[in-house]
Amino acid sequence: MSESSENSRRDFLKKGALGVTLAAWGQLVFSCSSSGEGHEHGMAEQTDTVKVLTPDGQLVEVNRAHLMHAHHTQEVSYEEARTGVPGKKFVMVIDLARCTNARRCVSACQKMHHLPPDREWLTVKLMKDSKTSEPYWFPKTCFHCDNPPCVKVCPVDATFKRQDGLVLVDNTRCIGCKFCMTACPYSTRVFNWGEPGEPADMKTHYSSPETSIPGQVGTVEKCDFCPDMARMGKLPDCVTACPNGAFFFGDQNEDIVTNGSETFRFSELIAERAAYRYGEELGTEPRVYYLPPVDRIRPAEEALEEMPEERRKLYEDQL
Amino acid sequence: MKRSNSINWPFSFGHWMLVLLLLGLSVNVWGQEEEEEPEQISSRMSLSAVQRGEDMAELKALARAKIDGRFTGLPGLEVAFFSLSDTLEKELGKATTDEDGIASLSISKSELYADTAGAFMLAARFDGNDEYSDSDDEITITAATIGLEAQEEDSTRTLVATLESRGLPIAEADVYFYVKGTFRPLKIGEATTDEDGMASVEFPAGLPGNPDGSIDMFVRLEEDDTYGTVESGVSEPWGIPAKESASVTRGLSSPNPPLWLLLTFVALLLIIWGHYLEVIYKLFRLRKKAAEN
Amino acid sequence: MMKTVELNKKQTAIVQALEPQFKKAGIVYRLWVGLLLALILFGAYGLYKQIAIGHVVTGMRDNVVWGYYIANFIYFIGVSYGAAMLAAILYYFKVPWGRPIIRISALVAFITGIIGPVFILLCIGRFDRLHYLFIHARVQSPITWDVMVISTYLVGITVFAYLLLVKDFAILRDSPLLELPSWRRKLYSALALRYKGTEEQENQIDHSTKSMAFIMVPKVILAFAVLSWIFGMSLRPGWHSTIFGPAYVISSVATGIALIIGVMWVYRKLFGLDEYLTDQHFRKMALILLVLVAAFGYFTFSEYITSWYSSGKWEAAVTAKLLDFDEFGWAFHLANLFGIIIPIIVIAFPRLRTPNNLALISLLLVVAVWVRRYLTVVPPLETPLLPVQDARPEFLHYSATWVEWALVLAGAATFFIFFTLIPKLINVIPISVYEKENK
Among A20, A99, A281, C393, which residue's CB has the most CB atoms within a 10 Å radius? Predict the structure, then answer.
């Protein structure tokens, strides 16, 4: 259960899937199971902590997030955090053919935003469009809709649409009425039902709608596309964490999206791969595009078979 | 399980004390050893260089260590950069690694020692600290420049790169052309240099640019064994001008409501509350009138 | 010499009939009030837990973010609107048989109007930021509309109910027939605003009350609409339907009337008011109820048969849950049986239309509509567009915790305690409305 599973490199001679790093399969796939109770014990802990020597010679285990001092973010004014990064229009493309439910995106997101295991901003769903069609894994971020139903209904302007396309939550403004949660048809938003876990080190973070840190009890929060990172020209953590390069992120204004190692023209990529937006008929105008799960690098069932029984049960209804 | 009761203990109380004393001593000795020589994690350094434009060189040092079985960049380490010749050594400067473990230093190539063949010997060193062992790396690169020219004929736009080393063209080298992006550059073409050291690609149509229509492009010889990375850029008004971000319009998902909604809302409130005030005023008048009577 | 309000024969009779209402409380009464207080205290303890620990003490989770509280909120506030509408119409059109009922209607409207909004506050995660609803108000949000409409409505119903009381306060202040402690006389005197029954005063009060009654009707319709839009404006099947608003209005007015019938029955029994709340009154109310319940039945049927018949996947999933006996089927069908079918049958046959039967079906209806409110809120939330796939059972299905039960019971107890205490102070049969009688 150690990290003996070094990343193995395999080349995919498929269009657009060249040189994708594939994580070794096996337990890693489940190392960060979402919400199961088993999460607190076992592998997850081992992957999240590292052994380091302190300056006084003690061998201690610390959370890797702390070792890395998380991310140093560029502090911006409240006004700037509300209007967005000038001139940008952030967009995401998710290649469903590359998602194998490795769940690295989820754990990277949890770490980035100091979320406890039971509160996920990013989820990976198992989808099956009809009885006869094949199931596929479906990573779901916030869609940052251009016609956001959640923003419309907010009574206090706590959730808002920025000029750079992002929909963010100001958790110092949110009154916790949850109206946005009922308005979002994609079940994107999560609520701090109790005290938020894993407090962030506020020496290296700053509080802003761009960071949503620290989390506040009784308020709503959600995937924010890591705007503090984007402002510095860095990709969101889910994008860089994906071993298969399934997430592409970029600026629609400059028509470029990248998963870190491959870079495409956004308009060409979505045209050539017949991208679609989830729930298009709802008129929400999502900013996340999905590339259909054509030529999957791995059938969805394989990930299912490797799962512990109790976890597989969650997906039974879908199959 | 069987337990034997018939063991004869050969040791006296004194023996026992001696054993205990020895044990205590040895524990103490081990403890001291641990404090004196803390086990450092061995770090690794890899140095690379980018020759940029006519004269500049950027030295990049990546400090890493194997943590938990995975190579991880080490942030916050101080790395010193050196230019070397056969006999001399000059410190160019110091830089601290960022959160990805990269320290970089930009310097004019005229500051570097060069041998007769135009090669630079460069080194990066980390002296080690309590946590990580020292490490260093050395590379040798040969001076080279790449020129980038934007040509427009009729409706064809072409980027032409010229790769040279000390005035002589470099042939048969693969160079890549890019457009700058927020997160990563977008490759728009690749070509191999001819005997004049020239390579060209056609610029794709329809790429968006900055608000003024300018677009930043660059060409790169990537991680060449002899020259390292060589690049240079140019900015041309070839992009489709980006629209200035529109001012905030009124709407359901804007902070400002549609006007008709606001007016209806306020009008309804005013009418009803106005009516209330009238009724309540009259109630108080009732009291007052009675007093007058 | 101060002029006092003169009473006619009928009014004198009512004042005399107040005796059982105003008499000193007995042991049963005290125990009852004690029980209600205990329930309210228990609710307060639950609320304390919720504030101290967070909403994690409730059964609400990320999919079902609203539960008992919102169901209770739309239930009570709907009943309040319905009762207010009835009181306003009865007053404005001077419906002759409606006179003894106006007071009870106004009280039901006022009391449920106070209880309802408390439950939406319980849904708010951050009590400390409630004032943001005003200082950062966003006019686009139906919640902002609701905050404004409800606060406006509450002021309106309070003023209306008070206007209806002023003359009676003056009568109670002046009446030599009543033996009242001096503090109560002083209280009535203060509340009567020196009303002496002069023609000018009378005209003024009547005019004000009439204009309040007039404006109450559009206001209540607006309030109903806004409340239903909190649901209707969303994209959720079960909420996002045109008929949602009308069905909500109709069922709420029906519940309001049923509640008024129940209160009439109890007061008639307790205070011996058979002469004023006659069988005839019950029958008239029942006929209104019949029309409303039938309409509600029709709307319900129309709503679900369309989604059952057509093939919209998401919407059909919600309807399927309501019809499935392993999910909400029992609750849904029983609520329709007791809330729609049985009331229609009982009211439709004149022989069955006795006050006792009507009180019984009113009780059934009041509970059944509460269940329907629950079924309005929870099944659509348990049926999101994307599969839930969560290991935690509480994220799949909502089930209320003791905290929610405690607060819901406290809400009901508050309703009962108001209706227990108010007759000690206010005559439940209005006196002044009979001033034109026998003259």
Answer: A99
